[in-house]
Design a protein that fits this description.
It is a single chain. The chain is α+β, with helices and mostly antiparallel strands. It contains three helices and nine strands, in the order αβββαββββββα. Strands 1, 2, 3, 4, 5, 6, 7, 8 and 9 form a nine-stranded antiparallel sheet that branches. The longest helix has 28 residues.
């Protein structure tokens, strides 16, 4: 496998991951509705290559002004309505999911033409100051390059700050990616780490802009 083929694989994997959490069709019209101030992306679980797989949890925090005037309840209703859950079936109501009441949905997410992630989405909130939107894959059906992606965990948590109308978004993603043959652990980790940080930052800004139109 050539160097350029390896780079192409890494970039396509990142594109698949970004596709999981990007704005849904029709939501891009809210772009730039508010300024988003983000800190540099970091790793709450350090990036590493273990047993031939890249693992780690990237995280970024952003602050933005709410513009919709509907608060957490309005954002929660919007997210539930946009969720591509399987057959409209509610999986469960959970009184305590990561410390918050939650609705859980069996979810199928398309990642381009060659990969589909099956998992569970939790939309958890206290209906006042905090909302957490979590997707965790159970299986990934894939062909071609997408077969290198083994699992994805993505989380968006928005919390009211002490400043009136100002919110903080914490976006994180944990991934497992099989290392292609013919590439060093060091290069694979550094390249996937850098590309993951950039992808997560773009996704966080898009999510904050979408959320601002409802909060």
């Amino acid at each position: 496998m050539s160097f350029m083929e390896i780079i192409q694989i890494i970039m396509q994997i990142i594109a698949f991951i970004s596709g999981l959490f990007g704005p849904k069709t029709g939501l891009r019209t809210v772009a730039y509705i508010t300024e988003v101030d983000c800190y540099q992306a970091g790793w709450s679980v350090p990036a590493a290559v273990v047993g031939g797989e890249f693992t780690g949890t990237a995280e970024v925090r952003c602050r933005f002004d709410g513009k919709g005037g509907k608060g957490i309840k309005g954002l929660r209703s919007h997210l539930v309505s946009q969720l591509p859950h399987d057959g409209g079936a509610l999986e469960a109501y959970v009184e305590n999911y990561q410390g918050l009441p939650s609705l859980g949905f069996r979810t199928t997410l398309e990642m381009g033409a060659s990969a589909t992630a099956h998992g569970t989405t939790h939309i958890a909130s206290n209906n006042a100051t905090t909302l957490r939107n979590v997707f965790e894959s159970h299986t990934i059906e894939a062909t071609g390059v997408a077969e290198y992606l083994k699992s994805v965990y993505g989380e968006m948590e928005v919390t009211a700050t002490e400043e009136d109308g100002v919110w903080e978004l914490r976006a994180s993603q944990a991934i497992r990616v099989q290392k292609p043959a013919g590439i060093s652990n060091g290069f694979f980790k550094s390249r996937l780490k850098a590309d993951s940080e950039g992808s997560l930052m773009d996704r966080a800004v898009s999510a904050a802009q979408e959320m601002a139109s409802h909060l």
